[in-house]
Amino acid sequence: MLSFLPPTPSTLMETLKTKFRQRRKELGYTQPELSSRSGVSLGSLKRFESSGQISLESLLKLALVLECLDGFEGVCEEREKMPESIEDLL
Asked: Whole-prediction pTM value?
């Protein structure tokens, strides 16, 4: 079933932790290695990969090292207003 609802904070956290873990592994970094390269404590990295909890600054540091920081530039950009009804589309 298609969902037209935006993701909840908890589902987005789950998605991000999974994508970041996958990216870390794609680049061949262990958790201690990524921690050292990013300046994010190993405990914070482990907590993020298990629960999704992390500070914004730490998340951005990880994104920089994992070469995916550019995706954050689109956050809070103005978007086209969605039609209020199907009639507005027609």
From this structure: 0.80
